[in-house]
Amino acid sequence: MSFAQQNLPPIGLEIPCSCYAVDVPFRVNVLGIVTLDFRGGWKVRVEANRAAGVSGVKLKMIGLEWWADSPVLGRVTISQADTDVTPLSLLEVVSGNPDKYRNTMFLDFTVTIERPPGGGPPLELSSTKTARLLNDNLFYYPPQGNVYQLQEPVDLAPASALSQVVATLLQLPLTVSHNP
Fold this sequence. Notes:
The protein is an all-beta fold.
């Protein structure tokens, strides 16, 4: 076993992390871009990676919630969606001496807008595809103040009509830190 493999978190370990992202551009079709500051956290469980020739582990998202308060939209909450359809995230060893990791987080989520434009009850939207957050320059895991970047904008639509995009999460510069 290589030194890097010894430093991977053990199978079954649950890792809670706090997360925050400031100045997040959130486009709402009828309003334009609203800037939000999200805070919250996620929790992952380490799973075995049985793929041949792969040095790393998989991470199962077992909890996710971020929220931002907006004078226009009220509270905007991002919550974990169906965990059974979301692919397991990857923590891969990309080099050794010193160890270097790439962490790709796969996320399916819902977004609840407390005060949707035009009024009415809170609006719940679903991501139309699995989001990918990436940090490919980690020298330790769990992260401590490391920034993950959304790899492409994520469209949001009502779960009953995923082709009717209502909003888009344009970027998400997410700072992630382990909560021991």
